[in-house]
């Protein structure tokens, strides 16, 4: 233990959600067999984990690259894909390894049903996010949410629309593995002098859960890698809690713990 003698605890509810675990397990299985695998977009919104898998042969491509591939395997990550991707794969004899999260697929199917019924759809989500690709508001609105957004903000939007007189059909499509973290994290965050929240910068879920931690413990720091930790963030004898997004690997939080214990 270092001079600061920090008492460090990892939130055991943090780490990959089942959708990310499924996608990464599938990728690693094929990498072990074939030595390489294409993935459409970052397999997870965490640069450290992406680099680990790239070292094993994962090749990240963008949608513009898909049309140039033929007779290859391509992984669809947990975020899911639009119908055009499946059409391109069929035309180019590409085998899609579909690791779309079932929660995301359910949301997409529900939105498709609303679209087929000519409902006017509003989605609470991150503009351009793979899950959402898909504003003057009409009088009648069907409201959905990206699966990783804040439940509190979703219901605030719902209430605001109702108060403004819109005819609203609201569908709470937030993943319960995410929303349950919203409920459990406040208890964890208040137990410690400091919180280190570990997440990739691109993670929508990470931004939501970081704000939950910071709301209940102002001494919360956001880091994406061990190299971003500084001893000046802490005082000798601090108790430190480590939490992460559903896209944060446990091995990275364990590395952060080891670094903190070395201060």
Low-confidence parts, pLDDT < 50 over ≥5 residues?
Answer: none
What is the molecular shape? flat
> What is the topology, as strand order, of the major beta sheet?
1-11-9-10
Q: Whole-Å distance between the termini?
A: 7 Å
- Percent strand: 15-25%
Largest beta-sheet details: 4 strands, parallel
Helical fraction: 25-40%
- Give the strand tally: 11
Order of helices and strands: EHEHEHEHEHEEHEHEHEEH
Structural class from helices and strands?
Answer: alpha/beta
Structure description:
This protein has 263 residues and is an alpha/beta fold. Helix content is 40%, strand content 19%. It has helices at residues 18-34, 47-54, 63-66, 83-91, 102-116, 151-163, 176-189, 204-216, 250-261, and strands spanning 7-10, 37-40, 58-61, 73-76, 95-98, 121-124, 140-145, 167-170, 194-198, 220-223, 239-244. A four-stranded parallel sheet has the order 1-11-9-10, with helices on both faces. Strand 4 (73-76), helix 4 (83-91) and strand 5 (95-98) form a beta-alpha-beta unit. The longest helix is centred in the first third of the chain and has 17 residues, at 18-34. The protein is flat.
Output the keywords.
263 residues, 40% helix, 4-stranded parallel sheet, alpha/beta
Give a concise summary.
This protein is an alpha/beta fold and 263 residues long. Helix content is 40%, strand content 19%.
